[in-house]
Amino acid sequence: MGLVLDATSHTPLHRQIGEQVRRAILERRLAPGQRLPSSRLMASELEVARGTVLLAMDQLIAEGYLVAQAASGLSVANDLPDEMLATPRTEPAGAPANDVTDTSALSRRARTVLRDAMPSFGFEEAPLAFPTGQPDREAFPFALWARLLEREWRRPAWAVASALHPFGHAGLRAAIADYLGAARGFTCTPQSIVITTGVRQSLSLLAWLALDPDEAAWIEEPGFVGTREALALAGVRAAPIPVDEQGFAVERAMAAAPEAKLAVVAPAHHFPLGTVLGLQRRLELLSWAERHKGWIAEDDYDGEYRYAGRPLAPLRALDRSSRVAFLASFSKLLFPALRLSYVVLPEALVPAAEKRMTAEPTRPSLLGQGALARFIADGHFATHLRRTRLLYAARQEALLAGLERHLARWLEAERDPGGMHLIARPVAAIAPAFDDRTVCVAAAHAGIALSPLSACYAGRRRRHGLILGYAGTPEPAIAPACAALARVLHRARP
To answer: What dotted CATH number matches 142-380?
Structure first.
């Protein structure tokens, strides 16, 4: 019950007990109808006489906070007035008010996070539509997953149940290596694969291994906000390089930050613009890494989803000097709570990475790693990807139709040959007055999750638009959500 007595206080012990139980009831830490421990147990735990406890309980019964029942002992009264339960705790005289809007006690970076934060949905809530980076919740075979988990943990191997390798489950790393060789066109050893909690940890690890503090890394502008955060964790300075219609350009990057030693790119499908990096620029980037002893982080966050044309080979498949690290995530492909990603490191970085991960306090959960290894090795992963490719392609078409039908007055979007989201830009007539953050806030109040394009820019020059994730939105919900967003924009009158 959280009771703490002070034997040196001038307040009698029975009054200390009564006051603390009374406060617990008023603050709802003890719920109406909740049973209390027996007086004997309370006296034993508090190391006081049973009579002291009974005296405190008798007073609370007389005041109406507790009720006594012959067979059940003491319990909290069910009929306490609501206004009594809502009574705030009294603060000592002169104590500062507990104002959650007061940010004066926070650091500058914490205040910046609060200022720039977009409305978020509660952990128990699901938005009506368009969350970014969310796969379909109904498409994943959870019944199969439960069986795989049960098989893995019924009698786990000693290597799994004891001290696991710092890079993660050996079976999962072997399954990933086999899958990449068959599906993505490049070979790697399981020993070079590190299981992580997400792309931020993968990138932070790579930056820590390859760069010294305050050295520069090229990042795409606009780009994934988590890239900047991961580099900051490693003490690396981010150098934003504006991308054009053909993606990342080494020539522009060299002119802006020639001292950089790392390039962080998403060549298969740029986030958020969706650009595919052409073969010529891929070869230029690889040539830069070889000539300047630089490193490349290839973020393949949704490269598995291609709906038209043949995808280009990953940079890692074209790498002849072992300068490319390949980053990918299962959380976006399967389900977010899995929290499992991986990075395929260049061989030269593996020994140091092992030492680093041995000391890493945040490790990915082992619970699902063995089941995921079986899921991949038995072919279920490839089957799931084939099924969701068809599903997501249909949802993109439904979203384009919904935008055309309900939102053409305000927004325009183009078909994307891959990915899990679309960019909706304001039409020319309203573009000067369009504030994507304001629209996202208004949409959140209507139950619609949107992401502002402007948040993906690190510099002051920003373009506005809306990032609409369609993979996690059921097709029947897309048209109604577009109509609801149209009502939001009509009221906002951008």
So the answer is: 3.40.640.10
